[in-house]
Amino acid sequence: MLNRISLKNYLTIKHLEVSFEEGLNILTGETGAGKSLVLGAIEVFAQKRFPKELKKINSEDLEIEINIQDDKKNILLKRVVDKKYQSIFYIDELKVKFEKISEIFDEFFLFFGQKSASKLLLQKNHINYFDQYIMLSDSLISLNDLYTVYDSVKKDLDKQKKLLKELEEKEEFYRFKLKELNKLEIESDEEELEILSKLKKNNSLKKNNEDISEVVSKIDNLLLKEIYQLSRKIVKIDAISILDEKISNASTSLEEVSYELSKLLNTFENYDEDFDALEDKIYISKELRRKYGLTLDKLIEERTLIQSALDNSSDLEGRIISLEKKLKLAYDQLYAESLNLSKKRKKLSGSFSLKIQKHLKDMGIKNCSWIVSFREKDISSDGIDDLEFLFSSTNELPPDSLNKVASGGEASRILLAISLELSKSFNSKVVIFDEPDVGLGGAIAEKLGQKIFNLSSNVQVVCISHLPQVASFAKNHLLVEKTLNKEQSITINSLSRSGRIDEIARMLSGEVLEEEAYSLAKKMIK
Question: Which of 113, 261, 300, 348 could form a disulfide with 434 if both were Cys (CB 3.0 to 4.6 A apart)?
């Protein structure tokens, strides 16, 4: 049961609280007073995205509180919309996720507004309306579980078939690519860095060897020969013959330097590594990365995947055969359950049609026809039934699609008829009607009021109405009025019997209240 709703900074409302009672709660008031605003706040509470246009005061948080009662336990729901239009949800002051709020709304509230008439005209929504009426939730859950299994197996099978087809179409290319990738002998970035470090060190050693070889060559082939020539000339000069020994010593020293440097050449040589092979590894790695535009890790991964695909081609065929058997089994179970559900739907469609037809006749469509049409469709999560409501307002024409033959007024009455039947299926719900009496009047409007009143004996009903014939059935009559108060742009007050007489009289006669209207209002109030 809905006990109370509180609004803060909602549109032009600074603060407003409305209390509801068991049974039939009806809101009335002049056009534009703000009746739909209150019920709209309940509906928008359960929308994931909050409409920005409903928050007029940006400097303060917007708050909606809804107090409901479940088996004598009070539950406080709260939605706060901050300055950045971010929503925070609470249940009994504890912060919760939106999904929890959505679950509670699905359990407690059933909305029938003017927008619902347009949804009714869409065939895709008909099966949902009908399934709610026949209350086969257990069958639908079972069917949905079976479809989930079937769909999962089917997707897996399609994936495996696609892989096999690609493998067959590209096997030659894959083998060529694998042959190239198998040339890759470096298995990681770390290994590549280690090889590059060895090559760098080896190049440094080679440069040392080249420099030493050049020095030894110049000593042996240039310097020693020049010194020998100089010593021969010096011997022939008597005056400086004393220098001959020094020149001989210099020659000996150079020979020793050459010898020692030659020994160093052997120490710089590294015969443990095949540096040509290492350079080939680096070259192949760079070329493959350039060609395929992949990192070393991705090249190795690609090689593994291709090798696995080629190795497992026979396993793939076996897996497909296994999945095909599994899919057939899942489909057979799903189809059997779908067929069972279809039989239940068809069995109950006749009584549903008679009830809808009776409601419509009570609301003035005397010669109407209504049937639930069934065609078989491809299997899906809701079964094999392509279900559609067909309607005719006259005996002269056969029933046809609602979007082809139902006028706006007829669509509203059809929606009301369906909502009355659906409401009976949800005894724990709060049923909300937003102007269900549009386009009605007179005795038909009174029958509508009686139907809604009868419904309220089992569930709480909150209804906006423009008609005194409907409002006269209210157990709790709420009057919505505009005010000049800056803090509260509208007021909603529960009327006493005398207040109800005044409001019903206003609805009967308009702005100028006549004595006859008062007299009739007294008689109308139930």
Answer: 113
Contacts 24+ apart (CB under 8 A), 237-241: none
**Residue 467 neighbours by CB under 8 Å, 6+ apart:** 437, 440, 441, 445, 448, 449, 507
512: confidence class by pLDDT, cuts 50, 70, 90: low
Give residue 204's identity as a one-letter amino acid code. S
- Domain stop point among 297, 324, 343: 343
* Nearest to 474, CA basis, from 508, 524, 418: 524
Asked if residues 195 and 281 have their Cβ atoms less than 8 Å apart, the reply is yes
Instruction: Decide if 224 is inside a domain.
Output: yes
pTM for the predicted model, two decimal places: 0.64
pLDDT, one tens digit per residue, over 197-217 is: 888 887 887 888 888 888 888
- Separation of alpha carbons 323 and 121, rounded Å: 41
Mean pLDDT of 313-330: 89
Using pLDDT thresholds of 50, 70 and 90, give the confidence band for residue 192. confident
Q: Which domain holds residue 81?
A: 1-121+429-495
Write out the H or E segment, with its range, that includes residue 301. Answer: helix 296-311
In the sheet where 109-112 sits, what is the strand order?
Answer: 109-112, 430-434, 460-464, 24-28, 476-482, 490-494
Q: How far is CA 506 from CA 8, 192, 436, 452, 522, in A?
A: 30, 92, 20, 22, 12
> How far, rounded to the nearest angstrom, does the alpha carbon of residue 58 sit from its chain's CA centroid?
29
> Do 23 and 80 belong together in one domain?
yes
